[in-house]
Design a protein that fits this description.
The protein has 2 domains: 5-106, Transcription Regulator spoIIAA (2-Layer Sandwich), CATH 3.30.750; 130-317, Vaccinia Virus protein VP39 (Rossmann fold). It contains 8 helices and 16 strands. It has helices spanning 5-18, 64-73, 134-141, 158-165, 178-190, 205-214, 239-251, 271-279, and strands spanning 28-33, 42-47, 50-55, 78-84, 95-102, 107-112, 115-120, 148-152, 170-175, 200-202, 219-224, 229-232, 235-238, 254-264, 287-293, 311-317. A hairpin with a 2-residue loop joins strand 12 (229-232) and strand 13 (235-238). The longest helix has 14 residues, at 5-18. S-adenosylmethionine binds at residues 130, 133, 153, 155-156, 158-159, 174-177, 180, 204-205, 225, 227, 230, 232, 237. S-adenosylmethionine is lined by residues 130, 133, 153, 155-156, 158-159, 174-177, 180, 204-205, 225, 227, 230, 232, 237.
Length: 318
């Protein structure tokens, strides 16, 4: 069914109204989540006065005037459109970018539960803060007081910032990319958190886990959020093939009574499959409870499109 201009505006306004509660604790939210908001192929995110529009279908371009008007009415100063060319590729060269409003630079700062994070809307598909992990950040932060945390595959260290602010004894953020760790350092500075000795480690997470075990380092809480596919020192990492090995190594440095968040955004992975991978490792006999987790409340319809999926477990161990 082809929407009229006013029907389209109604759907946009309705989707934003659904997020009103969330906007009290953060100014970084997904305002439209494709089929979940009856706008299939359209994703709109707000980062304070900055907006990013992902078009999985070019048809929505016909509502450019309405979208720009909606963003301006909310005080928007920056709006960038990202459209995938052809298949659902996420390679930078396959993403067409177009600034529709550019009254501010692409970099800004957002707040989430009293903490601040730098985002850049013109740096590939990701902005620097994964909105879908918001509730999971809070869940992890709630139990780190006085404990040592390993944030493996840390990206820009948003879990690390939340954990330090919540009173973790120490946090080690490990990522292979120097650039994202530097962004992590800026996030620490924004929140006036003074980094500890091993706070930012540029290293392959698998190698890091092996080294930590050798040196007798243990953690009370571990965040394990690898990309679906990545290259590392010994070859390539693929969730389906390599997750058990990664989980086994993480168990070996997890304290008694420790907890882990294990997650993947591989769209083809169900909770049953991920649970099977986790339980396949010998150390899994230590698991006391496994709680399935997904994307936060501003991702209705999560799992119905590859761009909106997150399969995770919160694992409490003996
Ligand atoms: C899905 S993101 C993690 C998101 C992060 N947990 C968050 O919530 O912000 C995956 C990260 O893994 C990093 N990465 C990829 N391969 C890696 C490896 N072999 N060792 C360590 N980090 C790696 C990437 O640089 C990227 O920052």
């Amino acid at each position: 069914m082809r929407l009229s201009s006013s029907q389209f505006r109604g759907l946009l306004g309705g989707a934003a109204a659904e997020r009103a509660d969330l906007l009290l604790v953060t100014n970084a939210v997904r305002l439209v989540n494709s089929v979940g908001d009856s706008l299939p192929g359209m994703i709109l995110e707000q980062y304070d006065r900055h907006y990013v529009l992902h078009l999985l279908s070019p048809d929505w371009r016909m509502f450019r005037r309405e979208i720009e008007g909606f963003v301006r009415e909310r005080g928007g100063k920056y709006l960038i459109v990202k459209e995938r060319q052809g298949a659902a590729s996420s390679r930078p060269e396959d993403i067409h970018e177009e600034e529709w409003i550019s009254e501010a630079p692409s970099v800004t700062t957002v707040r989430e539960r009293g903490l601040q994070f730098e985002v850049d809307l013109k740096d590939g598909l990701n902005t620097g803060l994964f909105l879908d992990m918001r509730a999971n950040r809070s869940r992890v932060a709630a139990l780190v007081r006085g404990r040592r945390v390993l944030n493996a595959f840390s990206y820009t260290c948003s879990f690390g910032v939340h954990c330090r602010a919540a009173g973790a004894e120490a946090v080690e953020n490990v990522d292979i990319s120097r650039k994202v760790l530097e962004r992590g350092e800026r996030n620490y500075a924004l929140n006036e958190i003074i980094p500890g000795e091993h706070e930012f480690v540029r290293m392959d997470s698998l190698e890091y886990l092996a080294m930590a075990r050798k040196k007798g380092r243990r953690f009370g809480v571990i965040v394990l959020d690898p990309p679906s596919f990545a290259r590392h020192a010994q070859g390539t990492f693929r969730v389906k093939k390599d997750m058990p090995h990664l989980v086994e190594k993480a168990f070996q440095v997890l304290d008694f009574n420790g907890a882990m968040l294990i997650s993947t955004n591989l769209s083809a992975m169900t909770h049953d499959q991920l649970e099977g991978l986790i339980r396949s490792v010998p150390e899994a006999k230590r698991i006391r409870t496994m709680t399935p987790l997904g994307q936060d409340q501003d991702f209705p319809g999560s799992g119905r499109i590859p761009e909106s999926c997150l399969t995770a477990f919160f694992v409490q161990c003996d």
